[in-house]
Amino acid sequence: MPSEQWTHPEPGDGPAAVAAQPSPEQVIAGLRATSEGGAELTQLLTPEGERVPSPQFDKYVEDVDAEALRGLYRDMVLVRRADREANAMQRQGQLGIWVPLLGQEAAQVGSGRALKPNDMAFPSYREHGVAYARGVDMKDLLGIFRCTDHSGWDYKAHGFHPYCIVIGNQVLNAAGYAMGQKFEGKVGDDDGEATICYFGDGATSQGDVHEGFVWAAVYDAPLVFFCQNNQWAISEPTERQSRLPLYQRARGYGFPGIRVDGNDVLACLAVSRWALDECRHGNGPVLIEAFTYRMDAHTTTDDPSRYRLSDELEEWKLKDPIERVRAFLARGGYADQAFFDSVQADADAFAADLREYTFNMPEPPPERIFSNVYAEGNPVLDAQREEFLSYLDGFVSAGEH
Ligand SMILES: Cc1ncc(C[n+]2csc(CCOP(=O)(O)OP(=O)(O)O)c2C)c(N)n1
Ligand SMILES: [Mg+2]
Predict the structure, then answer these.
(1) Which is an annotated GO molecular function term of this record (predicted)?
(2) Quick one: which of 7, 90, 235, 377 could link to 307 by a disulfide (CB 3.0–4.6 Å)?
(3) pLDDT tens per residue, range 27-63
(4) Which among 152, 143, 144 is positioned nearest to 357, based on CA atoms?
(5) CA of 258: how far to CAs of 28, 97, 124, 184, in Å?
(6) Which of 109, 87, 89, 82 is nearest to 100 (CA)?
(7) Nearest atom of ligand 1 to the alpha carbon of 169
(8) Pocket of ligand 1 contains residue 230 by CB under 6 Å
(9) Phi and psi angles of residue 288, each rounded to the nearest 5 degrees, phi first
């Protein structure tokens, strides 16, 4: 009985192949391939911290010496520590909600560090690690989650757009932006620009993502679609959203797709650099599926024990993105205990700073909602602001009498 994963017929295959249907066993094998990563996973560092040579991708991380790898380790530890602190602050009522990234540090730091200053990133709502890699002050993220701000950073200066909560919508924005880079002649050589767009496995079921794929493909836009397949779209597992591994969808749109171990920061860096390089030279778009795992809840409003087994998390803990780098550094003698202790101390100080800032975060004045809507003034909006302010004044004078 055939149990290998069924693949679609190739152009030129005979009628028998075209007419063939997958057997139930092949369908199940295909689903397992979706949830287990499969042989097609690009990996440079195993979960045990062993370096795997890659003829195709090693050259993209040639410059990553022990010092650079220690830097990536530090990035991930700081980002995780900040994430845990924010999660705790939500539990204490200091944030309205938090969206944990726990487990996705390598996918975000690896791809974020692959970007060049003139590149542009379009995040969804979980990309705190990319924000950090783009030099966004993590304090500026917290205003969104304390509900005092929409996004507090200069997206042009950082090459990092505001968060997008509407699933998949940022893919259209990114496609348009990347088409603009193409129209303005900003692609074609090593100095070319590229765009990266982050979205989840669940987002791939959205029409916006499909449209973004089509537009980017037909215009050869310099766009890296970076799908973090964290196995879950809230309570919906990936295998219920796709009949084939997500990266294979790229083929139907006419651009390359690749599955990378999303818990391997070195592989994420290498594959992202490759994909961005393709885009800067005019060979985009490219789809990267970073195969990873959301180790915490979807948000602090979610309880994953309602829909997934705890042994699944235990299995993924063995593939932890930070531990494998730590194992590699320690085993190779590239870092000693003093280094790991100092990173931990830096992370604790980083988190304490975020905490202190959050507790003392100023409330924005109520009329702030009218600012930054238009680049310059708008008479209708100005009138609304005046009306709102006099309405608020009415409360003050009513209380005074
Ligand atoms: C258009 C739209 N539909 C539904 C939602 C509600 N929603 C928020 S997150 C989410 C799941 C997204 O899953 P995925 O794309 O895998 O991203 P992840 O949260 O796992 O990072 C849904 C359905 C939304 N925000 N926007
Ligand atoms: Mg998901």
Answers:
(1) oxidoreductase activity, acting on the aldehyde or oxo group of donors, disulfide as acceptor
(2) 235
(3) 666 555 545 666 789 999 999 999 999 999 999 999 9
(4) 143
(5) 22, 33, 21, 28
(6) 87
(7) 1
(8) yes
(9) -110, 125
